[in-house]
Amino acid sequence: QVQLVESGGGSVQAGGSLRLSCAASEAIYSRYCMGWFRQAPGKPREWVSRIAPGGSESYADSVQGRFTISQDNAKNTLYLQMTSLKSEDTAVYYCAASDNYCGTGTGYKLWGQGTQVTVSS
Q: Which among 7, 28, 5, 35 has a CA at the least distance from the CA of 113?
């Protein structure tokens, strides 16, 4: 089965930037829709962004204008560039993939293990 591995999380000051990566074990990004989700303590998993095979991008209102999703098929890697980070962005971030789902819900087939992002004030 395809594996997804997130990296790039860490601790940053409010207003700072961070880039998350999601590496796939095989070439899937031309066929799969990819999504980023996050989960803060005590809260349900929240959709952040997604990118379709055709390149169409979508963002949650809470991150619109601050986060950018992209993918590099040659490197089998998905990215989430985060800027102007706020304390409320603190969460575990997960990447997800599916060849038959491309929505804002959690109906994706594959999930990474998550990477922690902590934003301090």
A: 5
